[in-house]
Design goal:
mainly alpha; binds zinc ion
Length: 123
């Protein structure tokens, strides 16, 4: 999933909250703004979930296109799932990420985006 359904500061704030790496396979981003093949995944798929930070995690495009709109447990139990670790370990990482407050990370994201030349009005 890509596009502008999330404000840029919220997207980067989520990336910072999640350590600039895919929560599922732990592949790190090497771009200051995470613009090298990363997106945001709905832990609970969009039709049953929401756009709150507690339902969103940083995700690489490989994991995102593998998971699609499946429930997390179903995806983790599927063959060729690229997530790293046991399902319990992945669930613990997701739980840790989604229960961490976004606010301070979003504040940092705004500073980083402004430093990269983004207009504060549009982030
Ligand atoms: Zn991944």
């Amino acid at each position: 999933m890509s596009g502008n359904w999330l404000r840029l500061s919220k997207r980067l704030g989520l990336y910072l909250r999640d350590g600039m790496a895919c929560v599922y396979c732990q592949r790190p981003s090497h771009h200051a703004l995470g613009q090298d093949g990363f997106s945001v995944d709905h832990v609970i798929p969009r039709d049953g979930g929401n756009n709150q930070a507690a339902n969103l995690v940083m995700c690489c495009t490989k994991c995102n296109s593998s998971k699609k709109d499946r429930d997390l447990e179903e995806w983790l139990g599927s063959p060729r799932c690229p997530a790293v670790g046991t399902p319990a370990e992945v669930l613990m990482r997701v739980l840790q990420a989604t229960t961490t407050p976004l606010k301070p990370h979003r504040k940092a994201a705004r500073l980083i985006l402004v430093a990269h030349g983004y207009d504060p009005k549009y982030i």
